[in-house]
Amino acid sequence: MTELELKYGCNPNQKPSRIFMTEGELPIEVLNGRPGYINFLDAFNSWQLVKELKAATGMPSAASFKHVSPAGAAVGLPLSDTLKQIYFVEGIDIDDSPIACAYARARGADRMSSYGDFIALSDTCDKATALLIKREVSDGVIAPEYTEEALQILREKRKGTYNVIKINPDYKPNPVETKQCFGITFEQGRNEIDLSSPTLFENIPTQNKTFSSEAKRDLMIALITLKYTQSNSVCYVKDGQAIGIGAGQQSRIHCTRLAGNKADIWWLRQHPKVMNLPWVEKIRRADRDNTIDIYISDDYDDVLQDGAWQMFFTEKPEPLTREEKKAWIAKNTDVALGSDAFFPFGDNIERAHKSGVTVIAQAGGSVRDDNVIDTCDKYGIAMAFTGIRLFHH
């Protein structure tokens, strides 16, 4: 098959629409559903991310994509009991499935943004992973293979319309890529920079020059994630998973704040008050996510006022105060931060420090590098200048 006709493009009025190959056959097979234009953009970008993560770390990897940027990305490390609870994986045995662990982490990092995601898996989709996917609101999944059990589960999702794509893992695109804008064709070499190179963290201008193996792994995850994130972008990573991604902002400090706020929310979801919220029976997963998001925000009264809390809780919870949130966030440590280009000012480091960042990888080359380095030294942060820019548009 060299081409596939689509229902429409980005919007229903954009017709005709198709994906096609100018040379050779399409490297995909649609096993179920009818993926659309945006579905395929998410599928192909997310597949590149997880394939590269697997190659760099040697671990099964997963990504949760929304509107051509990752909401989450992770490798298949085991989940603690706390993470199992906040990722809502109860009732599914994922301990023996690294790819299921990877997807639980990728989806759980930013559940608000992952609602209605497109999923990418570096390895075969097994039964445990399919059961996780089945219970979430999602548009589709791309993977190199599916077990028969997993495929049957996925084919029953969304009344039989769930999008399931199988991709040839050996497919290698042309080294030169093209795209059109305003009827004009752009051409460039594909971004095939190797982000698993041991030389990536050799240029360390800060006083602290210590990068543990876990820190290097997390920084690689951050940089590979950024490689497929709409720029400007920064990514916070902890324990093998992205916990905050700031994408598509015009100002880098806005990226850092946005991603840092997401990282803080991820950490606050582990606060004892949040984990012990007295939910009403059979509350919908989306309602639970939305309610948690409001409960830990400054607008908590929207779900705690009389007439509102009864819809979500069996009894009225105590609010999570600003002082409690600040104290809890201060306990988050050993967070890695990657940036797709240089930090122009030390204010980015100030914000990153508030979310527990201890290691940073960024391009370097700003006229204010000295200010950025001084700010890192102020907090004992180790920072590497990679000399690599990772813009993606």
Walk me through what this model shows.
This protein is an alpha/beta fold and 393 residues long. It is built from 14 helices and 15 strands. The protein has helices at 37-57, 81-86, 98-108, 111-114, 127-135, 148-155, 213-227, 252-268, 272-275, 285-295, 301-304, 322-329, 347-354, 369-379; strands spanning 3-6, 17-20, 28-32, 61-66, 69-75, 117-121, 138-143, 163-167, 176-181, 184-189, 233-238, 241-247, 335-339, 357-362, 382-385. Strands 3-8-7-6-4-5 form a 6-stranded mixed beta sheet. Helix 13 packs parallel to helix 14 (369-379). The longest helix has 21 residues, at 37-57.
Order of helices and strands: EEEHEEHHHEHEHEEEHEEHHHHHEHEHE
The CA-CA distance between the termini, in Å, is: 28 Å
Main structural class: alpha/beta
Shape: globular
Strand order of the largest sheet: 3-8-7-6-4-5
